[in-house]
């Protein structure tokens, strides 16, 4: 679950919003959103590097913290992280006292 | 309880002002995350999977109703309406916004609380027996000494950049309810032949990826030498503890690699110096601090309460509650009450804001305005008159806080795990919930007897799984959650590290595995009063292995 995405995997970039700490994803237009389905995706190592670099610049500008690449699958119009940890970050805790509060999507 | 003096209040105010400025500069982009991270950690602010997390210090687990109401207010105004009590007697808020952090710290400061030194490579919250000042078996109240250690360790100029975190626990009773043997320094209050107070001093205990039991360095340290000796231990650790490898940086590794005799010699040599330089601790100073912990003005009451006994005869639920959640008090006519934060199917250690407020009211009215947090993630009302127990029980029931399972199989310790924590490899809360639901039947729980299950979502062992009678460690096996089971751990004065029973279990298998372990014990124990721990110590892992792996085969 903590494994880095492998080369060739479809990836998006995720981070925590600086002010709120909320989980966010970078869109094609450079904005950050809690809606994973609208996140910009990369399917080659070069594109993934570029995405992560752009996210790093946003972190340097104080928009987000700790950007990481997240391996995903695209199913129709929906994007779903491959790994449990990333699914929990996307969907919110699977258990605990903050359920059934709707997690940001 | 300890009340801030002018120095304490000024210090906390200045610290908040400093952090408010640091947050503002971070939000304005004047500080990078690399620059800001050590600063926020010094104020107990973590960045977890979903949000920032704030860890509030609750010194030696002691709270007033006013403080608990403030925590409820923070939960309601700044979080998602609840807080999580931890295995170090602290409270965590999981959904905090960085921009709100300074205002939250102001709210805490108004009730003499803070989040300083709840993170980082420094001396953390000094924990103590949650029955302190009330237990019938207590030699002396450990909290004055915990408070002395807290003051000494706060922003200590020499010990603010240790090789790693440092944890101290104090017990005032030979019956160890503070888990001192798995702390970096564990202190056991005792009296010498002349009746003078002092400590047995244990060093080098800990859990995590290399669990170790502490070594007893001193059988008896006079109380006046407490700070000088602790300073000597910290000085040796600060100088010789490893800084090359985060996973080998705790004092337990130093004890292991240097050897107990060598370490003791080094500490004693340092002590010869620190005795002259460390803060003096004469009896008058101890008495001054102890005055803050003077016992309440108990009224003289008969040892037995007619009202309580009548309620026990007529109300089966109350009788059940008293059997498990009520404990002997040193003053006749009074009792200690465990308020379980482990409702069936609930998240262990969590309390909603409305529950905190209800409990604050109960404590104010029935427990001399005092509560405790236990390292087993429950809350304690330390001073309840037996006559008042029926009324307290009714109020707890109304608040959903009357689960009569203290020390039973559903009184599970669990860390937040992969649902919340960025360090975790597997989830712990759902496993705890499913085990709790499997054993929901109260008759069955009482028939099983005392059984402590502890669950950690990673090797850092915040759920204390190493010292669970049944310990469960969540791991990542090729992208899937897997659970390793240990047996025979114990955090009390007979402290032991659990042994791995065998191959781990998937998420689907682990609850059945726990049930097989419990059924093996129940079927083969000598008598119902042979506890699970005693049974395991008598028969070892073999019968459990047979049941688990023969069953799987």
The level of helicity of chain A is 10-25%
Number of strands of chain A: 5
Beta-strand residue percentage of chain A:
25-35%
Evaluate the radius of gyration of chain B. 23 Å
Question: Residue ranges of chain A: pLDDT <50 for 5 or more in a row?
Answer: 101-105
The helix count of chain A comes to 2
Q: Give the fraction of residues assigned to helices of chain B.
A: 25-40%
Structural class of chain B: alpha+beta
Number of strands of chain B: 21
Order of helices and strands of chain A: EEEHEEH
Quaternary status: heterodimer
Backbone shape of chain A:
globular
What's the rounded overall pLDDT mean of chain A?
A: 89
Distance between the termini of chain B: 57 Å
Major sheet of chain B: 6 strands, mixed
Account of the 3D structure:
The complex is a heterodimer of chains A (105) and B (553). Chain A has 105 residues and is of the alpha+beta class. Helices cover 23% and strands 28% of the residues of chain A. Chain A has helices at residues 45-60, 84-91, and strands at residues 11-17, 23-26, 32-33, 64-75, 78-81. A 5-stranded antiparallel beta sheet of chain A has the order 3-2-1-4-5. The longest helix of chain A is centred in the middle third of the chain and has 16 residues, at 45-60. The radius of gyration of chain A is 13 Å and the shape is globular. The model of chain A is unreliable at 101-105 (pLDDT under 50). Chain B is an alpha+beta fold. Helices cover 38% and strands 18% of the residues of chain B. Chain B has helices spanning 6-27, 33-41, 65-78, 101-110, 143-153, 226-240, 251-258, 260-277, 283-290, 306-314, 316-325, 353-366, 389-398, 429-438, 442-448, 510-524, 532-539, 542-552; strands at 45-47, 52-56, 62-64, 82-85, 91-96, 127-128, 168-171, 185-191, 197-203, 215-222, 326-328, 334-339, 350-352, 370-373, 379-385, 413-414, 453-456, 470-477, 480-487, 499-500, 505-506. In chain B, the strands form 4 sheets. In chain B, strands 16, 17, 18, 19, 20 and 21 form a 6-stranded mixed beta sheet that branches. Chain B has a 5-stranded antiparallel beta sheet with strand order 1-2-5-4-13. The radius of gyration of chain B is 23 Å and the shape is globular. Chain B starts with 5 loop residues before the first helix and ends with a helix. The mean pLDDT of chain B is 96. The A-B interface holds A 1-3, 16, 18-23, 59-62, 65-66, 83-85, 88-89, 92-98, 101, 103 and B 26-29, 32-33, 47-52, 80-82, 84, 94-99, 346-347, 350, 352, 416, 418-420, 425-427, 429-430, 433, 476, 479, 481.
């Amino acid at each position: 679950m903590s494994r880095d995405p492998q080369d060739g995997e479809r990836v998006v970039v995720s981070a925590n919003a600086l002010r709120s700490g909320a989980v966010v994803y970078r869109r094609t237009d450079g904005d950050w959103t809690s809606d994973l389905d609208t996140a910009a995706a990369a399917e080659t190592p070069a594109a993934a590097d570029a995405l992560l670099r752009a996210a790093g610049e946003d972190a340097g500008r104080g928009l987000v913290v700790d950007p990481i690449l997240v391996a995903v699958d695209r199913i129709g119009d929906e994007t779903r992280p491959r790994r449990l940890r990333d699914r929990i970050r996307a969907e919110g805790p699977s258990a605990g006292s903050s359920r059934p509060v709707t997690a940001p999507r | 309880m300890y009340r801030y003096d002018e120095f304490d209040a000024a210090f906390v105010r200045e610290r908040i002002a400093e952090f408010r400025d640091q947050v503002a500069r971070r939000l304005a982009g004047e500080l990078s995350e690399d620059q800001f991270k050590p600063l926020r950690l010094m104020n107990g602010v973590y960045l977890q999977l979903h949000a920032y997390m704030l860890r509030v210090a609750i010194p030696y687990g002691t709270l007033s109703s006013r403080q608990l109401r403030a925590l409820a207010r923070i939960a309601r105004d700044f979080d998602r309406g609840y807080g999580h009590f931890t295995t170090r007697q602290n409270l965590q808020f999981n959904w905090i916004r960085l921009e709100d952090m300074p205002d939250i710290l102001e709210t805490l400061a108004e009730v003499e609380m803070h989040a300083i030194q709840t993170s980082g490579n420094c001396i953390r919250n000094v924990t103590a027996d949650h029955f302190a000042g009330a237990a019938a078996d207590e030699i002396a109240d450990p909290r004055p000494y915990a408070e002395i250690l807290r003051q000494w360790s706060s922003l200590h100029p020499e010990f603010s950049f240790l090789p790693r975190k440092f944890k101290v626990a104090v017990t005032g009773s030979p019956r160890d309810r503070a888990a001192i043997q798995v702390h970096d320094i564990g202190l056991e209050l005792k009296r010498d032949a002349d009746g003078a107070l002092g400590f047995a001093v244990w060093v080098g205990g800990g859990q995590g990826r290399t669990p170790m039991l502490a070594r007893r360095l001193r059988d008896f340290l006079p109380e006046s030498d407490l700070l000088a000796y602790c300073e000597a231990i910290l000085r040796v650790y600060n100088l010789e503890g490893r800084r090359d490898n985060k996973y080998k940086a705790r004092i337990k590794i130093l004890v292991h690699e240097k050897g107990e005799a060598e370490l003791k010699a080094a500490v004693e040599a340092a002590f010869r110096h620190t005795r002259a330089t460390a803060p003096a601790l004469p009896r008058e100073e101890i008495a001054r601090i102890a005055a803050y912990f003077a016992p309440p003005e108990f009224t003289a009451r008969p040892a037995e309460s007619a009202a309580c006994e009548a309620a026990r005869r007529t109300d089966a639920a109350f009788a059940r509650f008293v059997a498990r959640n009520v404990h002997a008090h040193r003053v006749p006519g009074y009792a200690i009450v465990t308020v379980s934060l482990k409702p069936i199917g609930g998240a262990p250690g969590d309390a909603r804001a409305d529950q905190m407020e209800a409990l604050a009211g109960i404590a104010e009215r029935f427990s001399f305005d005092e509560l405790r947090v236990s390292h087993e993630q429950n809350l304690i009302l330390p001073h309840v008159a037996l006559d008042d127990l029926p009324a307290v029980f009714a109020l707890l029931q109304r608040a959903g806080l009357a689960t009569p399972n203290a020390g039973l199989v559903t009184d599970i310790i669990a860390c937040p795990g992969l649902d919340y924590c960025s360090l975790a490899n597997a989830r712990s809360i759902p496993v705890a919930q499913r085990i709790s639901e499997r054993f929901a039947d109260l008759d069955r729980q009482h028939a099983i007897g005392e059984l402590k299950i502890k669950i950690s979502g990673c090797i850092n062992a915040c759920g204390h799984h190493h010292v669970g009678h049944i310990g469960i460690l969540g791991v990542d096996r090729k992208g899937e959650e897997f659970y390793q089971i240990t047996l025979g751990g114990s955090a009390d004065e007979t402290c032991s590290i659990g042994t791995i029973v065998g191959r781990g279990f998937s998420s689907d298998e682990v609850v059945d595995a726990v049930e097989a372990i419990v059924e093996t014990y129940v079927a083969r124990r000598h008598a119902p009063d042979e506890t699970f721990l005693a049974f395991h110590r008598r028969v070892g892992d073999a019968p459990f292995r047979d049941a688990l792996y023969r069953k799987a085969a």
